[in-house]
Amino acid sequence: MTRWLAALPVIALLLFAGLGLSQLLSPQKGEFERVSRDAPDRAFETMEGGVVTYSQPPGDAAIVVNLFASWCAPCEAEHPQLVALSKAFPGRVYGILYKDSPENGAGFLDRMGNPFAGVALDPDGQGGLDFGLTGVPETFVISHEGKILLHVPGPLDAKAVREVSGALNAPREP
Fold first, then answer.
1. 28-169 homologous superfamily
2. Rounded to whole angstroms, how far apart are CA atoms 60 and 57?
3. Where are the domains of the chain?
4. What is the 8-class DSSP label of residue 11?
5. How distant, in Å, are the alpha carbons of 10, 44, 71, 92 from that of 49?
6. Residue 85, SS3?
7. pTM of the prediction?
8. Rounded Cα distance, 135 and 25, in Å
Protein backbone atom coordinates (compact mmCIF):
# COMPACT_ATOMS: atom_id res chain seq x y z
CA MET A 1 0.00 0.00 0.00
CA THR A 2 2.79 2.47 0.82
CA ARG A 3 4.49 1.78 -2.50
CA TRP A 4 1.31 2.75 -4.28
CA LEU A 5 1.10 6.02 -2.35
CA ALA A 6 4.75 6.77 -3.07
CA ALA A 7 4.14 6.25 -6.80
CA LEU A 8 1.21 8.71 -6.95
CA PRO A 9 3.34 11.88 -7.30
CA VAL A 10 5.39 10.27 -10.07
CA ILE A 11 2.25 9.14 -11.91
CA ALA A 12 0.69 12.61 -11.55
CA LEU A 13 3.87 14.23 -12.86
CA LEU A 14 3.96 11.89 -15.87
CA LEU A 15 0.30 12.59 -16.67
CA PHE A 16 0.87 16.35 -16.39
CA ALA A 17 3.97 16.13 -18.62
CA GLY A 18 2.04 14.07 -21.19
CA LEU A 19 -0.76 16.62 -21.26
CA GLY A 20 1.73 19.47 -21.72
CA LEU A 21 3.53 17.61 -24.50
CA SER A 22 0.27 16.91 -26.33
CA GLN A 23 -0.62 20.63 -26.22
CA LEU A 24 2.81 21.60 -27.52
CA LEU A 25 2.64 19.13 -30.40
CA SER A 26 -0.88 20.05 -31.51
CA PRO A 27 -1.73 23.66 -30.67
CA GLN A 28 -5.12 24.92 -31.72
CA LYS A 29 -4.61 27.75 -34.17
CA GLY A 30 -6.72 30.76 -33.37
CA GLU A 31 -7.53 29.89 -29.74
CA PHE A 32 -6.45 33.40 -28.70
CA GLU A 33 -8.98 35.50 -30.57
CA ARG A 34 -8.32 39.15 -31.24
CA VAL A 35 -11.48 39.90 -33.19
CA SER A 36 -14.24 42.37 -32.37
CA ARG A 37 -11.92 45.03 -31.07
CA ASP A 38 -10.77 48.34 -32.43
CA ALA A 39 -7.86 48.59 -34.82
CA PRO A 40 -4.98 50.47 -33.22
CA ASP A 41 -5.27 54.24 -33.29
CA ARG A 42 -1.76 54.81 -34.59
CA ALA A 43 -0.63 56.94 -37.49
CA PHE A 44 1.79 55.10 -39.78
CA GLU A 45 4.05 56.80 -42.29
CA THR A 46 3.73 55.19 -45.70
CA MET A 47 6.27 54.20 -48.33
CA GLU A 48 4.48 56.62 -50.63
CA GLY A 49 5.22 59.54 -48.26
CA GLY A 50 1.82 59.94 -46.63
CA VAL A 51 0.25 58.94 -43.34
CA VAL A 52 -2.45 56.32 -42.71
CA THR A 53 -4.34 55.08 -39.69
CA TYR A 54 -6.29 51.83 -39.76
CA SER A 55 -8.66 52.89 -36.98
CA GLN A 56 -10.14 55.01 -39.78
CA PRO A 57 -9.46 52.86 -42.86
CA PRO A 58 -9.34 54.37 -46.31
CA GLY A 59 -12.53 53.94 -48.32
CA ASP A 60 -15.97 52.82 -47.20
CA ALA A 61 -15.53 49.03 -47.18
CA ALA A 62 -13.65 46.48 -45.07
CA ILE A 63 -9.94 46.19 -45.85
CA VAL A 64 -7.13 43.68 -45.40
CA VAL A 65 -3.99 44.69 -43.52
CA ASN A 66 -1.05 42.30 -43.85
CA LEU A 67 2.07 42.70 -41.70
CA PHE A 68 5.12 41.45 -43.60
CA ALA A 69 8.90 41.82 -43.92
CA SER A 70 11.45 41.25 -46.66
CA TRP A 71 13.47 38.97 -44.35
CA CYS A 72 10.46 36.73 -43.62
CA ALA A 73 10.40 33.43 -45.55
CA PRO A 74 6.72 32.68 -44.71
CA CYS A 75 5.86 36.16 -46.04
CA GLU A 76 7.37 35.17 -49.37
CA ALA A 77 5.45 31.87 -49.32
CA GLU A 78 2.09 33.57 -48.70
CA HIS A 79 2.66 36.31 -51.28
CA PRO A 80 0.73 34.60 -54.13
CA GLN A 81 -2.31 34.45 -51.81
CA LEU A 82 -2.06 38.22 -51.25
CA VAL A 83 -1.79 38.81 -54.98
CA ALA A 84 -4.97 36.76 -55.51
CA LEU A 85 -6.79 38.70 -52.78
CA SER A 86 -5.66 41.96 -54.33
CA LYS A 87 -7.05 40.92 -57.72
CA ALA A 88 -10.35 39.84 -56.16
CA PHE A 89 -10.63 42.97 -54.00
CA PRO A 90 -8.81 45.80 -55.81
CA GLY A 91 -7.71 48.68 -53.61
CA ARG A 92 -8.64 46.87 -50.38
CA VAL A 93 -5.38 45.08 -49.52
CA TYR A 94 -2.80 47.06 -47.53
CA GLY A 95 0.57 46.13 -46.12
CA ILE A 96 2.61 47.14 -43.10
CA LEU A 97 6.37 46.65 -43.49
CA TYR A 98 7.37 45.34 -40.06
CA LYS A 99 10.85 46.01 -38.61
CA ASP A 100 12.36 46.46 -42.05
CA SER A 101 13.82 49.26 -44.15
CA PRO A 102 11.82 50.90 -46.93
CA GLU A 103 14.61 49.95 -49.38
CA ASN A 104 14.41 46.26 -48.48
CA GLY A 105 10.60 46.35 -48.57
CA ALA A 106 10.60 48.03 -52.00
CA GLY A 107 13.06 45.42 -53.29
CA PHE A 108 10.88 42.61 -51.96
CA LEU A 109 7.76 44.07 -53.62
CA ASP A 110 9.63 44.74 -56.89
CA ARG A 111 10.77 41.12 -56.97
CA MET A 112 7.50 39.48 -55.84
CA GLY A 113 4.96 41.96 -57.21
CA ASN A 114 3.12 44.55 -55.17
CA PRO A 115 -0.42 43.49 -54.21
CA PHE A 116 -0.88 46.42 -51.81
CA ALA A 117 -2.92 49.57 -52.36
CA GLY A 118 -0.54 51.19 -49.87
CA VAL A 119 2.33 50.16 -47.62
CA ALA A 120 2.80 51.58 -44.13
CA LEU A 121 6.12 51.54 -42.30
CA ASP A 122 6.66 50.07 -38.83
CA PRO A 123 10.45 50.26 -38.41
CA ASP A 124 10.48 49.82 -34.62
CA GLY A 125 7.68 47.25 -34.45
CA GLN A 126 5.45 49.26 -32.10
CA GLY A 127 2.58 49.34 -34.59
CA GLY A 128 2.67 45.57 -34.87
CA LEU A 129 2.55 45.30 -31.09
CA ASP A 130 -0.48 47.60 -31.07
CA PHE A 131 -2.22 45.16 -33.42
CA GLY A 132 -1.29 42.26 -31.13
CA LEU A 133 1.20 40.80 -33.58
CA THR A 134 2.82 37.54 -32.49
CA GLY A 135 5.08 37.24 -35.55
CA VAL A 136 5.06 38.04 -39.24
CA PRO A 137 3.18 37.38 -41.38
CA GLU A 138 -0.19 38.14 -39.87
CA THR A 139 -3.31 39.39 -41.57
CA PHE A 140 -6.22 41.42 -40.23
CA VAL A 141 -9.55 42.30 -41.80
CA ILE A 142 -10.71 45.70 -40.58
CA SER A 143 -14.24 47.02 -41.05
CA HIS A 144 -14.89 50.47 -42.50
CA GLU A 145 -15.61 51.55 -38.87
CA GLY A 146 -12.12 50.48 -37.75
CA LYS A 147 -13.08 47.22 -36.00
CA ILE A 148 -10.94 44.11 -36.41
CA LEU A 149 -13.29 41.52 -37.92
CA LEU A 150 -10.79 38.71 -38.50
CA HIS A 151 -7.24 37.89 -37.50
CA VAL A 152 -5.18 35.28 -39.33
CA PRO A 153 -1.92 34.43 -37.54
CA GLY A 154 0.79 33.04 -39.78
CA PRO A 155 0.93 32.78 -43.55
CA LEU A 156 -2.26 32.79 -45.59
CA ASP A 157 -3.31 29.49 -47.14
CA ALA A 158 -6.34 28.64 -49.29
CA LYS A 159 -8.61 28.19 -46.25
CA ALA A 160 -7.51 31.52 -44.76
CA VAL A 161 -8.09 33.29 -48.09
CA ARG A 162 -11.66 31.95 -48.11
CA GLU A 163 -12.16 33.28 -44.55
CA VAL A 164 -10.69 36.67 -45.47
CA SER A 165 -12.84 36.84 -48.61
CA GLY A 166 -15.92 35.98 -46.58
CA ALA A 167 -15.14 38.75 -44.09
CA LEU A 168 -14.60 41.23 -46.92
CA ASN A 169 -17.89 40.22 -48.57
CA ALA A 170 -19.91 40.31 -45.34
CA PRO A 171 -22.72 42.85 -45.40
CA ARG A 172 -22.11 46.04 -43.48
CA GLU A 173 -23.88 46.39 -40.17
CA PRO A 174 -26.40 49.25 -40.10
1. Glutaredoxin (3.40.30.10)
2. 8
3. 28-169
4. H
5. 62, 10, 22, 19
6. helix
7. 0.78
8. 19
